[in-house]
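Hi R.,

Here's the chain you asked about this morning:
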Amino acid sequence: MYFCGMIKKYSFYLIVVLLAFSSCKSSYDKALKSGSAEVREELAWKYFENKKYFKASPLFKSLLNDYANSPKLEKIFFHYVLSDFYVKDYYNTAYEFKKLAQRFPRGEYTERAYYYATLSYYNLSPKYYLDQEYTKRTLEDFQLFLDRYPKSEFAYDVNSKIDELQQKLEKKAFNHSNLYFKTGYFNSAVIAFQSYIDAYPDAKNRDFAKLLQVEAAYKYAENSIEYKKIERFENALKFANNFIAQIDKNPIGERPKFRNQLYELKTKAENNISKLRYSVPQYYFKRKNYTMAVDEWRKLLKVVPSNEVEEVEDKILNAMYLKAFSSDVKFKIENYSAFVNEFEKINTADLQTKYQNQISLAEKELSTLIYKVPVELNEQGRYAESRDFAKAYLDSSNKLNTNVLDVWRKSTLDLSTIVTADAAEPLLIELMEDARLNGSNKYADRASIKLKDYPLILVSKPYKDKDYKKVIEQGEKLMKSQRGGEYRQEIVYLLIKSSYKLAKRGKRYERLPKYERTLYLINQYGSEVSSGKYAAEITRMKENVNKQLSKFGK
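And here is the predicted structure, written out as tokens:
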């Protein structure tokens, strides 16, 4: 009985509360939907003062149209957006506060609107490890606010928040750089730490970042391939020396405790560089990169003690000889000459004796290479290189070397057989000019025959290659310039035949103008082919062209 009585009692209270709530809700909805502006405004201020912003906001918003032309509009607009701000609708309030400030640029609430607009972005700024777009935007807008209102009542708060956001960006930048370091991307870490150091000159972790940058640079060098290690250890050494100099000049904060670690890294880098000066040239030498081996041994020569100079010079001479011996024929003269010049600088009797045989061979090679190089290049089918090499020697020599001249002639003629027809003509003319100056020879005679056939070659070669557009281009040029001689009928035939083939192979929408072009060429030049198989073939093509044109209603 007692239990039933309790249920009845509390049920009565629950019904009273629900009825009261329903009554309040219905009066709020009624005022929002159909109440007068005065009623809604009074209710809006009541909810706002009682901090029921989620109810105040719709009421204030409903008044914007009612007070569109009223002096009250700015105040209503501001409190509508401020209500949304208090319910944390920051995306909306960032936009609406700016809209308010732009609408009332000299209004009573303009300064506060700009402040709260930026404060909205501030509240959207996420944890430091997330994307910081809103953080950067907030910093820009806070700075604009201070420029606009330097004596604002909000200035102290804005400056405090700027410091807070700068520290967030600084923390993100440091952790981003450190992540590269921890995951073994040492070169990226070096670059990222440098960006951090440059961007945040007053950062509390700046000196620690410099130490980590030195260590990252050292590890990057340590994990590099052999021939890049010296350069990268030198870079690590540069970072270490610069930081040590800064510590010595201004030993503040935690700097002194970094000195021992820096000296340790510096010593290790220097030791590695000393060892690598010997191993790197040998690395190149084993891979037959004699040029780089010689360059590295020359660097070593500047720093080795005097008792090691002869050994390094020996390695340089050996590498230079092997480079000359194994190089492409085109570079043999240059490389053997460099070897001989290097040998002449040597003052050590032992090395002079040791390399006497190589010097004799080099000098013998140099005496014959002037002729052998262009010959070998020609035999390898490198006609242009052979021709250029022989030409350079002939132009620089005071005495005519007939053997080299003969190689130049052969290479020029050979080159004319593999280049395009229009590129071959000047080569053949050059051979004819040589015959005029130095007397006729078998190569000039062959060039004369080819030049006689040259107009036909201009069209027959591209026709053979199925380059019909080129045939038409060259053929029309020959016809208009009245060239062709005894081959003129064949040239006309190939010209018309190429145009006909292009028309047949063209896409449907291309065929009409191409057949018309072929008919034009037949009418223009066909009469020059008076008899024989070419005339019969041109007649047949004309009949076919007319048939095709009739299909197009022509």
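One quick note: Residues 286 and 472 are 57 Å apart (CA to CA).

Cheers,
M.
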